[in-house]
Specification:
It contains six helices and twelve strands. The protein is an alpha/beta fold and 243 residues long. Bound molecules: hypoxanthine (HPA).
């Protein structure tokens, strides 16, 4: 079953007929909000927003473990995660929807594994951090949903920072040197936890801005939301292709 994890700007999913909303307690505590259960066409699907319905949970405070565990308990086998980002390299311009294929994790202090003291230690393979076949389906789903040529970028390295502040220009230069194409705050540990749970996981990154120091301007989160709204408008149609 498909589960969509909404990020900034995506608090519900157009086309999802809601049948139930449930707060699911997990061994890791409570998720960011109720898990919404419903149908997209004939197919069952789930939805949650990682920041909560009122966007009150900062990226470093999200209970990623509870979110993933709650979705798994509700029956999710495939997760489509939406993570808003800034673009670093050429081609990742504001307005683009990128489907990254690699991750560099700069986050710290987040509960990032389901391994527990005394329990099995989960040394999962993370060579390809996104489930390859599912990621390819997501790319196809974007074209099938009618996204124009150039609006979608297949691939890229997603550098995940701690937030909630945006980066310094030097941090972005360093990230570019590290091979990052995109910068955002929520891609990890979500992807790794999905792998630990055996859930196929892929991400669509709406590019809201050029990353710090690249546009010659200071960054304004409110301006980003305008770009984001346009980027996120087709998400219901994309989910309909993937349910
Ligand atoms: N950096 C980090 N996270 C972001 C950005 C950014 O430039 N834009 C949107 N989310």
């Amino acid at each position: 079953m498909l589960a969509v994890i909404g990020g900034s700007g995506l608090y519900s999913l157009e086309g999802l007929t809601v049948e139930d909303r449930r707060m699911i307690e997990t061994p890791f505590g409570y998720p960011s909000g109720e898990v919404v259960t419903g149908r997209i066409g004939d197919s069952p699907a789930l939805f949650i927003n990682r920041h909560g319905e009122d966007h009150s949970i900062a990226p470093h405070q999200v209970n990623y473990r509870a979110n993933l565990k709650a979705l798994a308990e509700a029956g999710a086998t495939r997760v489509l995660a939406i993570s808003t980002v800034g673009g670093i390299t050429a081609g990742y311009e504001p307005g683009v929807l990128a489907v990254p294929d690699q991750i560099v994790d700069y986050t710290w202090g987040r509960e990032h594994t389901l391994s527990e003291p005394g329990g099995p230690i989960l040394h999962v393979d993370f060579t390809q951090p996104y489930a390859a076949a599912w990621r390819a389906r997501v790319v196809d789903g974007l074209s099938a949903a009618g996204l124009k040529q150039g609006a979608v970028v297949d691939g890229g390295t997603f550098g995940v920072t701690q937030g909630p502040r945006l980066e310094s220009a030097a941090e972005i230069r360093r990230m570019e040197g590290d091979g990052c194409d995109l910068v955002g705050m929520t891609g990890m540990p979500e992807a790794a936890l999905a792998r630990e749970l055996g859930i196929d996981y892929a991400t669509i990154c709406p590019v809201a801005n050029r990353a710090a120091g690249l546009s010659g301007e200071t960054l304004d989160f409110d301006e980003m939301t305008v770009v984001l709204e346009a980027c996120l408008a087709p998400m219901g149609s994309v989910a309909a292709q993937l349910a």
